[in-house]
Inverse folding.
């Protein structure tokens, strides 16, 4: 008969806090890898060109700000990753949403000077969809098992 002391046998049971920490760390690691990979795929889909892209294809960027402005961030509260372009002063969130899904948007026109005051007129336009984040997400999804592999150690 084998006799094991209480302290030694206690080490054979799951340490709930330790397991939860390992799972949380693994999820952060997996989601961060997913976010980085999706961001890379989305950035690579945007080409630099002075011409507009055809509706239904990823947008083209003549300045490069859209391509450089795609980021990802891990949300600790929701335990999720947020991936997408950042809105700048000259571009509203509605414009970015219209670019992805299509629809009405407001764009700022050229700078004009009226009695020494600098103004920019707003123009309402209907944007045809030029998705780049959804196709990137769709392309990365089949690789999730590979991304998550060995994330919990």
């Amino acid at each position: 008969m084998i006799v094991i002391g209480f302290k030694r046998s206690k080490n054979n049971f799951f340490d709930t806090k330790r397991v939860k920490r390992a799972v949380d760390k693994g999820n952060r690691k997996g989601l961060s890898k997913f976010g980085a990979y999706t961001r890379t795929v989305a950035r690579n889909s945007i080409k630099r060109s002075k011409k507009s892209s055809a509706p239904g294809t990823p947008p083209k960027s003549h300045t490069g700000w859209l391509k450089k402005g795609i980021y990802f961030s891990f949300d600790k509260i929701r335990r999720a990753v947020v991936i997408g372009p950042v809105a700048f002063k000259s571009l509203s969130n509605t414009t970015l949403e219209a670019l992805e899904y299509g629809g009405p948007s407001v764009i700022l026109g050229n700078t004009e000077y009226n009695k020494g005051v600098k103004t920019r007129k707003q123009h309402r336009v209907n944007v045809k969809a030029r998705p780049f984040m959804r196709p990137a997400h769709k392309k990365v999804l089949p690789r999730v098992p590979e991304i998550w592999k060995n994330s919990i150690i």
